[in-house]
Write a structure and sequence with these properties.
2 helices; Surface presentation of antigens (SPOA); four-stranded antiparallel sheet; single chain; 4 strands; disordered N terminus; alpha+beta; elongated
C-alpha cells in the first residue's frame, strides 16, 4: 500500500538496504549502514589520461616547419569559449582556464553526458 506521506516515485530508499535484503550474513559482506565505497578503493590507483583542448587548427606540414619561436597559431575557438576536457580520449566535461598561483588550471563548468548511457 502506498505511503500517503511519500507518493509513488518519491520515496527515500537506501541502496545498501536493497542490495542486502534477503541475504544471510555469509552472503552479505556489508553491515547495515556501512558504505560500499570501500570496494571502489581498488580502482583508485588506475592511471587515466586527462587532456584539456583549448582549440584545434589544421595546417600543411610545410607551414608547420616554417613556424618559429613566438609564432601564433589561430585556433577554432574564441576568447572566453569553453575548453573540452577529455579523460582517456573521451569528452567528459567542458571548462575554463584559471590561474592558480603561477600555474594554469582548469575549472569544470559542465559535465557532458555520454552518448552510450542514453
Amino acid at each position: 500500500m502506498p505511503d500517503p506521506e511519500n507518493p509513488v516515485g518519491t520515496s527515500d530508499f537506501d541502496l545498501n538496504e536493497i542490495e542486502t535484503q534477503g541475504k544471510t550474513a555469509e552472503e552479505n559482506p556489508y553491515e547495515y549502514g556501512e558504505p560500499m565505497a570501500s570496494d571502489v578503493t581498488a580502482i583508485y590507483d588506475i592511471p587515466v589520461q586527462i587532456s584539456a583542448v583549448l582549440g584545434r587548427s589544421s595546417m600543411k606540414v610545410s607551414q608547420l616547419l616554417k613556424l618559429g619561436r613566438g609564432a601564433v597559431i589561430e585556433l577554432d575557438r574564441k576568447v572566453g569559449e569553453s575548453i573540452d576536457i577529455y579523460v582517456n580520449n573521451r569528452l567528459v566535461a567542458r571548462g575554463e582556464v584559471v590561474v592558480v598561483e603561477d600555474r594554469l588550471g582548469i575549472t569544470m563548468t559542465e559535465i557532458v553526458k555520454s552518448e552510450q548511457s542514453s
